Amino acid sequence: MNSSIACGAGGEFIDDAIHQSCQVLLSGEARFHACLEARDRGLGLVLLGHFVSEQPAMHVLADQIRRRFPALVVWASTVERDPLTSA
Question: Does residue 2 carry a pLDDT above 80?
């Protein structure tokens, strides 16, 4: 099965996913009409939530910045939480 991943709001990548013969597009979120378009075009659309789809990349980005600029103290937040599920 071919799939594609788009962090954050990825509804604009529906055409790209279909062009790459993907059956599923994983994304943080998408507008209602993008969801309907994906359905009508036979593309599965999994909406993970905006925060959940982007947060893991922050650790990778922090590592890359840390390696490129060793004099800086860089880290990804350990206290940031999904605002839609946190109390």
Answer: no
φ and ψ at 83, to 5 degrees? -65, -20
Instruction: Write down how long the chain is.
Output: 87
pTM of the model: 0.70
- Rounded distance between C-alpha atoms, residue 53 and residue 10, angstroms: 10
| Per-position b or e across 56-75, b if 16+ CB within 10 A of its CB | eeeeeeeeeeeeeeeeeeee
> Residue 22, Cβ neighbours under 10 Å: how many?
19
Beta-carbon count within 10 A of 6 CB: 19
Q: How far apart are CA 79 and CA 77, in angstroms?
A: 6
Mean pLDDT taken over the chain: 88
Instruction: Output the six-digit token pair for 7.
Output: 């962090």
13: CB partners within 8 A, 6+ apart: 4, 6, 25, 27
